[in-house]
Amino acid sequence: MKVRKAVIVAAGLGTRMLPASKVIPKEILPVVDKPAIQVVVEEAIASGIEEIILVLSPGRTTVHDHFQPATELERHLEQRGKLDMLDFIRRTNNPVRFTTAWQEMPLGLGHAVLQAQEAVGNEPFAVMLPDDIFDGPVPCLRQLLDVAEARDAPTVALLRVPRTEIPKYGIVSVRSVESRLYELTGMVEKPPIEEAPSEFAIMGRYVLTPDIFALLVEGKPGAGGEIQLTDGLLALSQRRKLYGYEFQGTRYDLGDRLGFLTAQIGFGLKRPELADSLRRWLKSALRESESGR
Questions:
Q1: 200: nearest Cα among 157, 143, 254
Q2: Which domains, ranges and CATH numbers included, belong to the chain?
């Protein structure tokens, strides 16, 4: 299995991050000074992806526009001799081949992935959700690709979540294969804590085979008429082996206010020019907070 393409779903309305996402797509909200979508695209490129299919909502093209040349801005930086910044900006211009697909109505993640079928064609592909960003020694997607290519099978990212958070996620039942690797034997979307088959949740990275498209077409829409990717994955697991890999690294949920804040701190502490000052501020802020109790 060789994966060349990744589908990045950026068609949601971002309601969990209102009012910030009222006009600005949540994928453009920054992680320190990089839009979230750029962090995800850089992960894809670092993982060996050659083409990215962006699934967008009609009229919300900012995500795509971010990777196009900004002629006036580049001219301004060049005229003022800000060549380091100019080089940084130019490296965001078409860093990989982009294709665009459109989701006319917000009918679920499975429906969004289905809109990329023509662009993907009959080959395995990755799916990346920009709400989830990862920081680790090896890109999260590359970790999944290594498993998928070695096993010649679809693979999803797993995270063991606190029991109190189980109702927020798609939870899987598993059979251990080896360290960090599991065969998925079932899954349920956002179960009550007492009904959850495990504490493993599927995160926003997937390596899939093209037969998932037919299963999404055949699947029955759920509540609100939405087509869920989880239902397609469950059907896929009944036809072929489907693996889950407990990735190494830290995951941040940018669709959640606390996750958004912790991402700024986590990635800020990795920046040499920011780390010391940020660390001092955090210590000072904690002291003031504790003294004010």
A1: 157
A2: 5-255 (3.90.550.10)
